[in-house]
Amino acid sequence: MRARRHAIAAIGALGLLLTFAASQAQTLTAKQAEAVATYERALGDFKAILAERRGQIEAKQPLPNLPGQAIYLARVAVISSYKDLTDAMPSRIGRPNKFEMPPAYFDADIEPLIDEYGRLFDLMEAPPAGAQNSATPFKDVVDLAIAIARAKGLAPAHAEAAGRISLGLFFAETNGKQNVRNGRSNTYMGSFQTGPSEDRNGRRKWEVIKGTIAAADPELNARDDKEEARARGTDHRFNHWTNVRDGLMNAHADVFREIPAILKTLPDPIDQMKLFELIQIVPTPTRSALKSGDLLNYRVSSPTIMKHLRNNSIFAFGQADRARTSASFRDILAAMWLFNRKFERAMAKYSEIKPR
């Protein structure tokens, strides 16, 4: 009888516990429901725009202006809403994924959707007819960067760092694909994704140092003359050599002089690549940060600069990141995790072709 009373008491206690847990779960579910629904909507929208664009391409229908923008924004929404979901429900954080995104931001189960995303961009950004490819696109980037850095007065070891960093830029801008167009812009094109004015500015700057480079490296200068002749009368941005050359001269050549100091402040090669990519994205504050003497703690708070960062997948994912109104360069470099895989690929490629 006593055992039965104990059993009844235990069952009663368990029932109370389960009732309390169910009540708590119901409360949590109410708070999390919006996050779940938002993610499911975003995922459905992403699938729909991928299918729509694939159907248009296969049917050879005219694509809308900036055909990649809607797909890009849908991908951002998926990652953002998943981060909000895992913030609300940490149990939804899953396994690692092949894209090396933090699992709190990305559900590995949707990897095939990102594969399709990449395939569609490959089609939408295919080089135009007549684009002038190089048989050695990666070596071209490294050779040009080293030649420019040497002309700017860098020692050989620091010039080689310029070559490695510039190869990272090629992967950051186009995943290492030459002469591509841009599914999200009608302005920026080519291997280094420059606009017409940037291309012209880079060409002018190249002419200033061409004599110095010709004296130091006649072979590279002869290649340059050959590519100039080949590109004559065309958009120089669709000749791989001239676009890389002019892109580096426009935005990065003057910053090459800072490489010795940058290597001391940022010993991680991937952080070095990230910093030079920021010269592409937000050049003015990045140059100001370099001049400040306290690069990592230099803060930006301009709404326009924060918008540019978000438009390039930095502080773009989840409510907490998007609510930021300012950031230090230390914060910015840490938030550039989506670039890590690209820069790792650049490092691997550089190890194959680096000067001996």
Structure, described:
With about 350 residues, the chain is an all-alpha fold. It has two domains: about 30-125, no CATH class; about 135-355, no CATH class. About 65% of the residues lie in helices and about 0% in strands. It is built from 15 helices and two strands. It has a two-stranded antiparallel sheet with strand order 1-2. Helix 5 packs across helix 15 (about 340-355) and helix 6 packs antiparallel against helix 7 (about 220-230). The chain is globular and about 75 Å long. About 35% of the residues are buried. The model is unreliable at about 1-25 (pLDDT under 50).
List keywords for this structure.
two-stranded antiparallel sheet; mainly alpha; disordered N terminus; 356 residues
